[in-house]
Amino acid sequence: MAAANTPAAEASPEQQLFAAAAAGDAAGVRTLLAAGAEPVCESDGGVTPLMVAAERGSLESVQALLEAGAPWHAQDAEGYCAGDYASGSKNRAVLQQLLDWAVRAELILGTISRREKKGAAPNRDYLSSSIRYEDGKLMDEQGEAVMMGWETPLMERHAEVICSGGGDVLNVGFGMGIIDGFIQQHQPRSHTIIEAHPDVYRYACSQGWDKKAGVRLVLGRWQDVINDLGPFDGIFFDTFGEYYDDMHSFHELLPRLLKPGGVYSFFNGLAPDNLFFHLVYGEIARLELGRLGLETSYAPMPMDASAKEVWEGVANRYWHLPVYFVPTCIMAGSNQAADAASAQAEQQQQAGDAGDGPS
């Protein structure tokens, strides 16, 4: 960085700020910020003082920069944020500090939610478009993958989670029917499927799902049909063309839809191109579900879908992370909820180990 090679007498306040952050000089950072140094400045490659302080592991410097307005979600030229810098250098205390700050900021400002919506296709546009099944993929007419075969191990695990108590099970979003096949292996008392896309619904019927014993296949958007369904012992949610706000709206219905001790899970594709953003979203979901009476834990599952051939013919890759965190959300009224609470602490530590921030 320029600050490292510039004599202090000639360095700008921002260059001095970089130098103080790199040295872990929290007092210097606070003094420079108080004197007017800009906390949002960048060096070559888009690196910010907050990233430098996070990599250095200085809790006080990071706190001072955050309080001065340094954006926690700023990314360098390679897409890394301050949380990635902390994770990459194994500074778990700083990682937790940034995670807590990011969650509070996101709950107030909705920064990631706005990022997610940018460029995404609205659900109603998707439902009026044509889709096709080809080579282990479900594709829309824009060349976007709605679902892909690499998700099969994830769906098997999700089915285990929501079918752990047997009983009545709901899947929102048929897609390729992968999870529904696994649900059937658990022999639930009843198996309800909601599918909104008419072409996907017809495909499901062509595969005989509308005739399977104990299976109810419902055509429609979940928003339009859910009031006539439930309650359930297990629920899985995985829709296409919707945003986090839509899933949040579904979560608000869980106290009615899920029986006491029932288990909920969802496809955890939240912010899938950045591990730290992914953790922030997961924590927000955990807090929101907790407010509704569900105890949530995330079990890490190695998932490498990085091979070029996996995404051949797909317009945009929708998964970039080396690990997938399987959500288990248990409605109050079961001893399992206490187990989920104790498991949550492990997720934070394992997430730090999975970090591949800049070196």
From TrEMBL:
Biased composition (Low complexity): 340-353
Molecular function terms from GO: S-adenosylmethionine-dependent methyltransferase activity
Source taxon at top rank: Eukaryota
Region of interest: Disordered: 340-359
One of the record's GO cellular component terms: nucleus
Domain RMT2: start-end pairs: 117-359
ANK repeats, residue ranges: 45-77
Coiled-coil blocks: none
InterPro entries with a match to the protein in the record: Ankyrin_rpt, Ankyrin_rpt-contain_sf, RMT2/GAMT_Mtase, RMT2_dom, SAM-dependent_MTases_sf
UniProtKB keywords: ANK repeat, Methyltransferase, S-adenosyl-L-methionine, Transferase
Presence of the UniProt keyword Thylakoid in the record: no
Pfam families membership: Ank_2 (PF12796)
GO biological process: methylation
Keyword Glycoprotein: no
Listed name of the protein: RMT2 domain-containing protein
Native organism: Chlorella vulgaris (Green alga)
